[in-house]
Design brief:
The structure holds 2 protein chains of 2 kinds.
Chain A: E1 3-5, E2 10-14, E3 19-21, E4 24-26, E5 32-38, E6 44-50, E7 56-58, E8 64-68, E9 73-78, E10 87-94, E11 102-103, E12 107-112
Parallel strand pairs in A: 2-12
Antiparallel strand pairs in A: 1-4, 3-9, 5-6, 5-10, 7-8, 8-9, 10-11, 10-12
Chain B: E1 5-7, E2 10-13, E3 19-24, E4 31-37, E5 44-50, E6 53-56, E7 65-68, E8 75-79, E9 88-95, E10 105-106, E11 110-114
Parallel strand pairs in B: 2-11
Antiparallel strand pairs in B: 1-3, 3-8, 4-5, 4-9, 5-6, 7-8, 9-10, 9-11
Classes of the chains: A mainly beta, B mainly beta.
């Protein structure tokens, strides 16, 4: 069975500082990895995904994520945080055969002005 | 273009009642997914349609839950004899092809409250 762990329920960072939201996964075979963001009372918005190729994936709103196969991690990063980045972030994984996404429990990011 | 839409946005019902939740996917997307998100948790998979057929319904919690997609577009999630534990946000997503590399695009969800 596949699984995702987001070890931090809450991440606080000052505006302008770099941010990292951590994600580790477990899956049989090669993983397909996704990050989504959820604003209050809204659905999930797609940020980026890793399928194959370059381990550093760039996505929407200046976010990027680095796939590390040996550490089974896919941490989300941004060089300079904005107050408007404050939201709930979800990491998700899918394997080669499945169609469903398995999500982590989410990390609440708060960017302080 | 238009994204995934879900109606109603909020539904309050009484224990034991029947409810239907509707999802309109992005036009042309062949795959449609239903997830359930409980408070403080990530979404959990319920069912996946490829075209009109339910390709994977392994996430449906019991036989009170049923979903259809009769014409390969709009889908309805049906819950019979609702229980308080069914209270959650029900999310619908669609994707162009339904393969493993596809991106799923989510709707705003329906918040179901069972009193």
């Amino acid at each position: 069975a596949q699984s995702v762990a987001q070890p931090e329920d809450q991440v606080n960072v000052a505006e302008g500082n770099p941010l990292t939201v951590k994600c580790t996964y477990s899956v049989s075979g090669n993983p397909y990895l996704f990050w989504y963001v959820q604003y209050p009372n809204r659905g999930l918005q797609f940020l980026l995904k890793y399928i194959t190729g370059d381990n550093l994936v760039k996505g929407s709103y200046g976010f990027e994520a680095e796939f590390n196969k040996s550490q089974t991690s896919f941490h989300l990063k941004k060089p300079s945080a904005l107050v408007s980045d404050s939201a709930l972030y979800f990491c998700a994984v899918r394997d080669l055969w499945g169609r469903q996404l398995t999500f982590g429990s989410g990390t609440q990011l708060t960017v302080l002005p | 273009g238009a994204g995934v839409s879900q109606t109603p946005s909020n539904k309050v019902t009484e224990k034991g009642k029947y409810v239907e939740l509707r999802c309109d996917p992005i036009s042309g997307h062949t795959a449609l997914y239903w997830y359930r998100q409980s408070l403080g948790q990530g979404p959990e998979f319920l069912i996946y349609f490829q075209g009109t057929g339910a390709a994977d319904d392994s996430g449906l919690p019991n036989d009170r839950f049923f979903a259809v997609r009769p014409e390969g577009s709009v889908s309805t999630l049906k819950i019979q004899r609702t229980e308080r534990g069914d209270s959650a946000v029900y999310l619908c997503a669609s994707s162009p092809r339904g393969d493993s590399t596809d991106t799923q695009y989510f709707g705003p969800g329906t918040r179901l409250t069972v009193l």
